[in-house]
Task: structure prediction
Amino acid sequence: MSEQKASEIRTTEEKVVMPHRGGNSLILVVGALIVVVVVIAAIFATGVLSGGTKESVTLTGAGATFPMPLILKWADEYYNSTNHKVKINYGGGGSGAGITQIKDKHVEFAGSDAPLSATDSSTYGLLHIPETLGPIVVAYNEPSVVNLKLDGPTLAKIFMKNITAWNDAAISALNPGVTLPTDQITVVVRSDSSGTTFAFSGYLAAISTEFQTLYGQGKSVSWKEAIGASGNPGVAQTVLTTSHSIGYIELSYAKKNNIQFALLKNHDGNFITASSETASAAAAAGSASLPAGNGDWSHVSILDAPGATSYPITTFTYILVYKELYNDQSKMNKTAAKALVDFVWWAVHDQGQSFSSGLYYAPLPASVVSLNEATLNSITYNGVALR
Amino acid sequence: MRAPRSRLTFSGRSSGADRLFEYGVLAIALSTLVLVWGLVLQMAIDAQPSFDRFGPGFIIGTQWNPNTEIFGALPFIFGTLLTSGLAILIGVPLSIGIAVYLSELAPPWVREPLSFVVELLAAVPSVIYGLWAMYALRPFIAHSVEPFFMSFLGWTPLFQGNAVGLDKFTAGVILAIMIIPTVASVSKETMRAVPDSQREAALSLGATRYETTRIAVLSYARSGIFGACILGLGRALGETMAVTMTIGNANKISWSLLDPGQTMSSLIANDWGEAQGIQLSALIEIGLVLFIVALVVNLFARLMVGRIMKAVPTTGGGL
Amino acid sequence: MNTFAYRRMKNRLASFAALACVIIALIPLVYILFMVVKTGAPAISWGFLTNRTVGTGGPGEGIGNAILGTLLLVFYATLMGLPIGLLTGIYVSEYGNNKVGYTVRFFNDLLANFPSIVIGLLAYALVVNLLQFGFSLFAGSVALAIIMIPIVSNTTEEALRMVPNSLREGALALGVPRWKTVLKVILVNGKSGVITGALLSVARIAGETAPLLLTAFYSSYWSSSLSEPVASLPLTIFRNYNSPSKELLQQAWGAALVLILIVLSINIGVRLFLRNRTVKRKVVKNWKQRLSLRT
Result:
């Protein structure tokens, strides 16, 4: 054979660790020290950044994404108005998660659009405090169709996949003069246990006996063929990024992100656009007969409300707290408990409610505020009322 | 590749300090045993209510209904198998190609840095894969790839429905990308372990590079490569975040790759916060199933890889 | 049709295919890095890195508390997991040539096989529920530490095994007690491998999301308390990746950029600064080579 180039001679590499000589490791030690210093500095810095006072209270909540924009706004405003003394975390996760976590006492308060079942209400000693209300809109992604009009039965059929194409006869009938595309409708729903689903499915079940029989109202529904997204934001973004899709979200998400949503035919036969006002109209009749804070809210519903301008899919959303805030498992001391009650008081009165319409929620009717006041006054810590 | 075990044994009297040190270290090492036992026990205890209620039928139960409190694992086992299967289908050929290139074809100055870059794929956190999949991969798949497959495979049950991109197909593709570094690097190592005598023998018979690789290297390293694939499968089974973000979250069995689905791990990620009582128990039972499946797969893989890596090359290995 | 030309064509095709595989695999990597940098960079500013996540998508929000949270989670997880993993690895490598050692190694492999979501689930059951710690930095750190232990243990064991026996023998011959040998001779010489393993495991847990979902939970404040929930970079990405709000999505991309910078710099840094010094021995095959080498 011809001569081989030196580079073709196979070399074997023996991985042998050379005896310690120092040098390289210095860089590492220095690097590690820098990191440790940064971390320790940060740990101390947080004390300074968070106002430096050891009296600061942290309250953590979880649950409905329906009111999340409003609750986060409240948290920020309240943090500033209490001079950084009260920190409120709200982690979302869906009404189902909120209910589970407050039952397990891992959070100090929960948000839920779905009221507790009658059994849960009596078993757990939780109070319902409606903190806001708002409309659930039918958002869609079909840029060629402006001002889509739908009614209850058609909506139910779409979500039951009895109607599969945009240009279905039923939809055309409601939208005369509009050229509807031939594309298939992609249905987007909630993948998590959701109070928004509870309200939306409640409406469909009330309107359509077929829906009631096959699916029923619930925080989770076994939809026939749908893409599941997590939380109201998830559904909103999925509708935004999926052509020819349709989904149900709270109004705030639709307005803030310019997502098209449909006009719905209400109980009186008028096509209504969801808004703070039309939601208030829907709540007006239903607000008069709400149970006491510690009562059974499982039948409370302002869906398909009568009234010329009432929006048909409107719902209250509740803050759930324990009536007795002291318990062996809770980390809540008296200061924290008082802070919680004060925060909710602030939220349901003008200070908090003033932010509602800006975020497309409806302010609470006066009767509901009074009801909440009575509920908040009943909250105790070790048997002693906090207010 | 494991370095040869130290055959050194210390005999003679050991001082008190020696014994103290040894037992101290032993105690810490045993704590990992305690930890594992604790975790497995906790899982079994928490899954017990679900096991009592649904029995072995849980594995083939098709419903996951928190309202009626009927739970079954089949939709998720199905989703896991389908997405992992797709990942293997796409990822393994690519990985073997990469391994062949890195082991046989790459010039020496390229080999090390390129191997490192491929392994860098494994360092990217799963949630960032998911983020990228959502905004770069999904549109590409929904607008180009899926319609392409639908055009000639649309008659099969695998490609029914709309090309939305949040489905088992996208989940399978992102999983494929994620297992490539594992499968490729282990395959590469097993190929490198093939003794040169094999290659030389084939070359001396006049084989081309390709034929040499196929005859001498790939068939010799066969079990190791197979083991690498199984290792990749094990990785795909346990992957959570990127899958949750792309699979569309539908708790149903559907053969179409274009339909949303759910894997065992993505179900746990989804339902974790809201599950309690029997649902939480069922969820943990699914976690147990997932753990056992991943364990069996990984042990099997190590067996296969270990066999080729331990093989000491003898002269004149059979042709 | 086995002419040489046909075979040569197959050979060329195969080589090309193999190279194509490499390029196809590199495309996602390059694309991800490119996209994270391109989409995340506009978000980065001093304010972004030092403000807290409020969650409303308003101006003046940032991921500062998420960065701190990740640092704290990694810090406490390392505090708990590194010593245990290290000592376990030392045991298996130095003392573990027996049934106990094999069992320990087997159980470590078992631990490494837990999918991270299952580890999270179990940490939730144990720390959040059973120990009543609630959603907390501590619970998150425990979950991450559990993930870290088998990784550190395995890499430590590998690194120490590579230390040549001659060093052990030498120390023994000099009468150095066993424990001193392990600490001062073996560990010191295997240092780079051990540190590599430790740093790589740190990079790995920094990017873990699943175990933190219901342990560290969520915080929009600066928090370093072990008993309070804490923000983190991976969770910031996960919570905001599907948000319709452009600002919140931007936070996700910015967090992704910071996270990937941390993870990649650890990975690349370890590779650059900690390579095992290897000795390349040229194995000479025959007398012709020996001659050609001489010239």
Remarks:
- Chain B has one domain: 52-309.
